[in-house]
Design goal:
Layout (H helix, E strand, L loop, with lengths): L2 H15 L10 H12 L3 H11 L7 H10 L14 H7 L6 E6 L2 H17 L3 E6 L3 H10 L4 H6 L3 E5 L10 H12 L7 E5 L8 H16 L6 E8 L8 H10 L3 E5 L6 E3 L4 H10 L2
Parallel strand pairs: 1-5, 1-6, 2-3, 2-4, 4-5
Antiparallel strand pairs: 6-7
Helix pairs in contact: 1-2, 2-4, 5-6
Length: about 280
């Protein structure tokens, strides 16, 4: 790589992963991501140059593994972001959608959540993450997923909010929800892109009922909002005694369902395929 190109790669590595070239020996996926972002399909020409530079060291196992991974000849992990089917489903969603993410593992859930946000940011949409956790934790996860957090913060497109539990609002959850929407969009412009969930604890009957009330309200009035929304649910977080019923109600109030699980057993489908989904759950018991 020439000096200007090497400098650009170095800057991207630092901005996206807070690392430099030396760190890429342990994390070759970082370099691969940056090269693909800069060069697109032509990134393999750069990989060829790297191979030529490191040819004499290729007998060393760490170097050999590094060269294989950046050349795409060895998968980095089972969650390789370029092959994971739910990410393709996210990429194919309509511009305006109210979708539901169901996942049985946090790792896979985060892959889908942050791809959804990244897609919106690349389109220039104000993208809003709502969380009940610490904001810094979510920001770190966004950065670890490959999103250039500092860049999108400077453009004022990325917003992360730690939200209150509106079930505790004395005026009721609907009034609390409407007030919440006003607060989290105050510094943004439509079209909005949201990811997250309003009620923190849906493992209780009271909690899941409150969440369903909000989902029904939002879905029935969706055309009034200039936005898209990915609502996130871990399977095991949903109240267990009537889980199939809650899932049916949730799916009936979304346009799409994306199911993120182990890549060997992944399915993406729309809400009409409840029976297929239930078979999937039963097979895991």
């Amino acid at each position: 790589m020439g000096t200007p190109v090497a400098n650009e790669v170095s800057i991207r590595l630092n901005e996206m992963y807070n690392c430099d070239f030396a760190d890429c020996l342990e994390h070759p996926e970082y370099l691969t991501k940056v090269l693909k972002d800069i060069f697109g399909k032509s990134y393999l020409n750069v990989v060829k140059l790297i191979n030529e530079e490191l040819y004499e060291l290729a007998f060393d196992k760490p170097i050999a593994s590094f060269l294989k991974i950046i050349a795409g000849k060895e998968r980095v992990s089972p969650t390789d972001i370029y092959n994971y089917p739910p990410l393709k489903e996210v990429d194919n969603l309509n511009e305006r959608n109210h979708s539901m993410l169901l996942y049985d593992n946090d790792e896979y859930g985060k892959l889908v959540k942050y791809r959804y946000i990244e897609n919106g940011l690349k389109k220039g949409e104000h993208s809003i993450c709502i969380t009940h956790d610490d904001v810094d934790k979510t920001v770190d996860e966004l950065a670890s997923s490959g999103i250039d957090v500092d860049y999108y913060n400077r453009k004022k497109l990325l917003h992360v909010y730690q939200i209150e539990n509106i079930m505790e609002r004395p005026e009721g959850i609907i009034a609390g929800y409407n007030d919440l929407l006003k607060k989290i969009t105050a510094d943004s412009k439509p079209p909005y892109r949201f990811v997250g969930r309003t009620i923190p604890n849906v493992c209780t009957t009271e909690g899941i009922k409150a969440e369903l009330e909000i989902e029904k309200l939002f879905h029935s009035n969706f055309e009034k909002y200039d936005c898209s929304f990915l609502c996130t649910y871990a399977v095991n977080d949903i109240e267990g005694s009537k889980r199939p019923f809650w899932l049916k109600e949730l799916m009936a109030n979304h346009h799409n369902l994306i199911y993120a699980t182990d890549p060997a057993n992944v399915n993406t489908f729309d809400p009409d395929l409840l029976n297929t989904f239930q078979d999937n759950l039963d097979s895991k018991k």
